[in-house]
Design goal:
With 417 residues, the chain is mainly alpha-helical. The protein contains 18 helices and no strands. The protein starts with 26 loop residues before the first helix and ends with a helix.
Length: 417
């Protein structure tokens, strides 16, 4: 689990000439949401399944944490992906290929179910997680460009709120079905997830990707990357948010293994309760996404309050290992995250030049989200050495401290939505 918080120095860009103003949320945008929703259902269920399957097969919270973290490893290449995608006049074919590859990759999970070798099991599990992360990274970069292409400036907040709400509802559905699938068996889980990933490809086929829009004029990928780095270097707010997000995702990315260990080993409950935790936190994110569309003011002010509260909630969760109280706590955690996601995505869409979107998003993923590759493993190590309760407390304190320190980043603090 990670935060989406990219935005930069305001440019006042107006790109409405690339969209029909009479249909600000037109068919292309709707099919993009449909694709993202179906895919999000599968990726959410996969996120639950991969940690639970690994924990059951290996018994190791450290290995399970890294199985979750491998999804984030390809994010270190996001800047290269973003530069390449920005140079493409049409992105649909790449999106379709990525969608089909992730569906096929699910069948690699049969390998750890067949072989008893720990090494073979780990290699197969890590490979599937890596492929899932790589394809997700490519698709997210493409959707970032499409968001800018399919919306007008006056509907950025409305479109962001709708996108976040709908895809988060789909994510909730994925969390809901994951526990049921795991009870039915690992084989059933693999087949169903492969089917859902395949189904997510069909909306992509119907999207009419514009081929006549301007693309960046750098002759090589190297030139494209260099210009993107220069763009970020000249934006104090972008540099600030990348630093802040790096620490937040390093901390919060360990929560998945915390939840799994809490349900499986501390409370000794079936996988359905693990899925319910994510289902409820997602319900909070949905509510926060709707509420976030109504927020007006400085992003830094809201984020400081919301993230400080999130840190306190994590601390309290470690102190009260009662599943029904934990359900209440994670709902409010989701509420904080949902608001943060909408207001920061709105800022991102408003201030980044159109031909820089994928590169900036790629850089954000590389420097801000890529660090989550370490977070799952770190979470497993923390559980092993300081117990689950103190692991929750430590992560909560780190998030609260980062939120307070972020106030000193004035350019970031003063960005308005």
């Amino acid at each position: 689990m990670s935060f989406y918080c990219p935005f930069g120095k305001e440019k006042g860009v107006n790109l409405s000439e690339n969209v029909n103003p009479s249909e600000p949320l037109g068919r292309n945008f709707k099919f993009m949401i449909l694709n993202s929703g179906i895919a999000r259902t599968a990726t959410a269920a996969f996120a639950i399944a991969i940690v639970w399957i690994t924990l059951e097969l290996t018994g190791s919270p450290i290995i399970s944490g890294f199985a979750d973290s491998m999804v984030s490893l390809p994010l270190f290449l996001s800047f290269v992906f973003g530069a390449y995608i920005d140079k493409m006049s049409a992105k649909k074919n790449l999106a379709i290929i990525s969608s089909l590859v992730r569906a096929a990759a699910m069948f690699l999970l049969f390998i750890p179910l067949i072989f008893d070798s720990q090494i073979i099991r780990i290699m197969a599990i890590f490979s599937v997680s890596f492929i899932m992360g790589m394809t997700s990274d490519i698709l997210n970069s493409i959707r970032s460009v499409w968001m800018k292409q399919f919306l007008v400036e006056t509907t950025y907040k409305k479109g962001s709120s709708l996108f976040e709400s709908m895809t988060t509802m789909a994510q909730a559905a994925g969390y809901g079905i994951s526990g049921v699938l795991l009870i039915l068996g690992f084989h059933s889980t693999i087949y169903v997830l492969a089917l859902i990933f395949t189904a997510s490809t069909f909306p992509l086929v119907t999207i009419k990707d514009r081929r006549d829009i301007p693309i960046n004029e750098e002759k090589t990928i190297k030139d494209s990357i260099s210009s993107g780095l220069k763009y970020i270097r000249n934006s104090a707010s972008l540099k600030s948010i990348i630093v802040i997000t790096l620490f937040l995702n390093l901390a919060f990315g360990s929560v998945s293994i915390f939840f799994a260990y809490l349900v499986d080993y501390t409370l000794r409950l079936p996988a359905t309760f693990y899925g319910f935790l994510f289902l409820i936190i997602t319900a909070g994110i949905i509510a926060g996404s709707v509420w976030g569309s109504k927020v007006k003011g400085k992003i830094g002010f809201y984020n400081a309050i919301l993230l400080s509260t999130l840190g306190l909630l994590l601390i309290s969760m470690g102190l009260v290992p009662l599943i029904y109280i934990d359900f209440v706590i994670v709902f409010f955690m989701g509420l904080m995250i949902g608001i943060v996601n909408v207001i920061t995505q709105t800022g991102f869409l408003r201030v980044i030049d159109k031909d820089m979107v994928a590169r900036v998003m790629g850089a954000f993923s590389t420097f801000g989200l890529g660090i989550t590759f370490l977070s799952g493993g770190i979470g497993g190590v923390l559980i092993h050495f300081i117990t689950l309760k103190w692991s929750f407390a430590l992560i909560g304190v780190i998030i609260a401290i980062v939120a307070i320190i972020s106030i000193s980043f004035r350019e970031y603090y003063n960005i308005s939505v």
